Amino acid sequence: MASKFCVLCGKTDVPLVDGRLCAECYVKHRLVVETPSEVKGKMCKLCGSMWISGKWIKPETEDPLREYIWKLVAPRTTVDRLVKTYEISVERLWRDAGNRTHAVILLTGDLEGHRFEVRKDVLLDISKTLCNECMNKKTGYYEAKVQLRFKEKRLDEDKRAFFESFITGQYTGALTNVIEGKEGVDYYFASKSAAKNLIASFLAHYSGAEVKETFESEKVKDGKRMAKLVISVRL
């Protein structure tokens, strides 16, 4: 850019944006930053999962609400074409006289070496509900049951601990209930595939286990036969 004078403030020998304004004047008078005036969504009131693009997403930070607001606002924010680098954050939340929640969105960036800040107010309409996983856990819903039993016919805490070390990630999310008895433990899963994959992962690291699959509570729904999968694992 040529170093001529700014047509607003008269500064000379400074880089001009669009050949007419210095960066400071451009930010004050011409900079364009647009955010949505309102965003809608829903969050799980128990685990903080966020409803995004038709599915539940687990939060990645310790502040799920701010993370969700950022995920809703950032993709719908447009910034002046001349701004090459910028950051978007949620500066604060506040309530208006009607008890509606707002978020102050802070956009910081750089234009020709001039640092700037822009604040936008966004009205929030985020309802609190239960995600599928939390709903399944609350209602005790399950599609598969894993019965962990022991050849000694008594609960072996060491073997149990080793088995449970495999219940991580997706398996934890699918686990809806755990019931302990004198001879073993029953694990209830909302997904048959999760239960099967868990057993396959476990067997890859444990030899000598006796595994048997059966079905229970069979019924017909919409012309289809449905039943609970029962996987018996004896160590």
Quaternary organisation: single chain
Secondary-structure element pattern, one letter each = EEHEEEEHEEEEHEHHEEHEE
The tally of helices reads 6
Give a quick account of the main beta sheet: strands, pairing sense, barrel closure: 5 strands, mixed
Assign the structural class, choosing from mainly alpha, mainly beta, alpha/beta, alpha+beta, or little secondary structure.
alpha+beta
Widest sheet: strand ordering: 12-13-11-15-14
Whole-number count of domains:
2
Number of strands: 15
**How far is the N terminus from the C terminus?**
75 Å
Query: Residue share in helices?
Result: 10-25%
Measured by DSSP, the beta-strand proportion falls in 35-45%
Arithmetic mean pLDDT: 92
Unreliable stretches (pLDDT < 50, length at least 5) are: none
Overall 3D form: elongated
Key features of this structure:
6 helices; alpha+beta; five-stranded mixed sheet; 235 residues; 2 domains; 15 strands; single chain; four-stranded mixed sheet; elongated
Compile the SSE list and pairings.
Elements: E1 16-17, E2 21-22, H1 23-29, E3 33-34, E4 38-44, E5 50-52, E6 55-57, H2 64-73, E7 78-79, E8 85-95, E9 101-111, E10 114-129, H3 132-139, E11 144-149, H4 157-164, H5 170-174, E12 175-180, E13 184-189, H6 192-203, E14 210-221, E15 224-234
Parallel strand pairs: 4-10, 11-15
Antiparallel strand pairs: 1-2, 3-7, 5-6, 8-9, 9-10, 11-13, 12-13, 14-15
Structure in words:
This protein is of the alpha+beta class. It has two domains: 114 residues, no CATH class; 95 residues. Helices cover 21% and strands 43% of the residues. The strands form five sheets. The protein has a five-stranded mixed sheet. A hairpin with a 2-residue loop joins strand 9 and strand 10. It is elongated and about 90 Å long. The chain starts with 15 loop residues before the first strand and ends with a strand. The model has no long low-confidence stretch (mean pLDDT 92).
